[in-house]
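pinned: reference chain
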Amino acid sequence: MKLGAFSVSLNVKDIGVSKKFYETLGFTKFGGDINNNYLIMKNGNALIGLFQGMFEQNILTFNPGWDENAQNLDSFDDVRAIQKHLKVNNIKLEREADEKTSGPGSVVLFDPDGNTILIDQHI
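pinned: its structure tokens
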């Protein structure tokens, strides 16, 4: 199963402080808008999303159809196919993609320790 680009979405208290911290670690702004309380930071293939006031927990994020540069992939597993695989394997889904659609969609689930996983397809 191909889950696509991986990033960690962090719930931060002060996005300016977090931006400076991750820049010190060698990350640079890749996307987002600090004025809207979110930034995507990149260091090589590593991606970190900084989000202030948007959600309570940190989130493991996968983007089917994208590589780590947010470029479309020629071949990928659609989020609905991933969802079907998870359901067949008795993984409880918190939020499901509409199986009657195509294109963008998302699935939310929790790992055994309660960590949130977002599988978010943009194409």
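why pinned: The longest strand covers residues 5-12. The chain has a mean pLDDT of 96.
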